[in-house]
Write a structure and sequence with these properties.
mainly beta, five-stranded antiparallel beta sheet, three-stranded antiparallel beta sheet, globular
Length: 169
């Protein structure tokens, strides 16, 4: 399986994070997710899951910041279109991101259970996008935590792919 995200001069385009259009923000949070292409997935793929984290946030937050988790995306997808987190053109369930943590305590599900874009304070952060091809849909409820996703995927991952998406603060 392969995944691609179009970069601009080697970085995630500015519109998918802190330099995005004001219309794509709710409060301080950029919510427009970027498009992802998926190809050469195994024929027996029943669903996809994804995670997007920022390990470069560890010195700032004390942990890798979770920006997006989703599961049960259709197994025949070849494209996750732009803004699919807020306006999904297919069925999927989305988990909590780090704004739902005890440190932030965001309660609005449009923020804490969807994509929240990069907002690094300065310099370049390298965001890790992982797409998993799974042999079944997962028994998860909306608002699951990332650890629940990881446990539910055990024994069901056909393959996965990781790409790094740099974004400058």
């Amino acid at each position: 399986m392969k995944i691609t995200v179009k970069l601009n001069q080697g970085q995630l385009p500015k519109k998918y994070g802190k330099f995005g259009d004001a219309a794509d923000f709710k409060g301080a949070y950029p919510l427009r997710s970027f498009p992802i292409s998926i190809y050469e997935q195994p024929a027996q793929t029943a669903s996809f899951a994804l995670t997007l984290i920022d390990p470069d946030s560890i010195p700032v937050a004390g942990f890798p910041w979770i920006h997006w988790t989703a599961a049960n995306l259709p197994g025949d997808l070849t494209e996750i279109p732009e803004n699919s987190s807020q306006k999904p053109p297919f069925s999927m369930i989305q988990g909590k991101n780090s704004t739902a943590s005890p440190y932030i305590q965001e309660k609005d599900p449009l923020i804490c259970q969807h994509y929240v874009g990069p907002t690094p304070p300065q310099g370049i952060h390298n965001y890790e996008l992982r797409i998993y091809a799974l042999d079944q849909k997962l028994a998860l409820a909306p608002g699951f935590w990332m650890n629940e996703l990881l446990h539910a995927m055990e024994g069901h991952i056909l393959t996965h792919q990781k790409i790094i998406l740099p974004y400058r603060g």
